[in-house]
Automatic annotation (TrEMBL):
InterPro entries listed in its UniProt record: Asp_endopeptidase, Peptidase_aspartic_dom_sf
Alphabetic keyword roster: Signal
Highest taxon of the lineage: Bacteria
Organism annotation: Alcanivorax dieselolei (strain DSM 16502 / CGMCC 1.3690 / MCCC 1A00001 / B-5) (Alloalcanivorax dieselolei)
Region of interest (Disordered), ranges: 164-188
Pfam families associated with the record: Zn_protease
Protein's UniProt name: Retropepsin-like aspartic endopeptidase domain-containing protein
Positions with biased composition (Basic and acidic residues): 172-181
Record's signal peptide: 1-23
Domain Retropepsin-like aspartic endopeptidase: 30-162
Length: 188
């Protein structure tokens, strides 16, 4: 029985290695279900949960306020997180154009949230993605990356964490939201 278990384990490891090697050959990066990220151009490193069960990404935000600027809808908000490098609480105030409004339905009812475009660094690339804003201070991860974002990143390995570290600078590739092609099969 032990020989069978050992053989099965060896085969599983070989299969995972083959899948990872295949992903690399296809030019797609592999990310774990938890990764470190930074919000550009704020060099504060924080944890992000990659959640294939969520469609839209979400970011920790407080003091969320809608306002009008030059006839357009904007959102003012504070991102307050713990810097993973220093362990200190840090915050930054943002003003961004409102990209769209999002209605989230759940067991607790309906929740209306503003969505803005934010740039985050994942591995060595900057991604401009849609983020709904909500107070995630009671959550373990201040940033949640949903399927809309995951499809732009590459592949998700739900058995691993911290496969990449944010390493972006002024020469990093920037993938703008408007230039990203969304897969029609990612769901609603």
């Amino acid at each position: 029985m032990r020989r069978i278990s050992s053989a099965a384990l060896i085969m599983m490891v070989a299969l995972v290695s083959t899948v990872t090697a295949q992903a690399d050959q296809d030019g797609k990066k592999v990310f774990g279900w938890v990764e470190k990220t930074t919000i550009e151009s704020w060099d504060v490193e924080m944890k992000a949960k990659l959640d294939s069960g969520a469609l839209t990404s979400s970011m920790q935000a407080t003091d969320i306020e809608n306002f009008t600027k030059d006839g357009e809808d904007w959102v003012r908000f504070t991102v307050d997180v713990e810097d993973d490098d220093s362990g200190k609480k840090v915050e930054r105030r943002y003003e961004k154009p409102l990209f769209r409004d999002l209605t989230v339905r759940g067991a607790g009812g309906r929740d209306e949230r503003p969505v803005v475009l934010m740039k985050i660094c994942m591995d060595d690339t900057v991604y401009e993605e849609q983020f709904s804003l909500r107070d995630r201070s009671e959550m373990l991860y201040p940033v949640l990356l949903g399927r809309r974002t995951i499809q732009h990143l590459g592949l998700l390995d739900v058995t691993s964490t911290f496969q990449n570290s944010p390493d972006c600078d002024e020469n990093s590739e920037v993938k703008h939201n408007k230039d990203q092609k969304d897969d029609e099969d990612i769901g609603d």
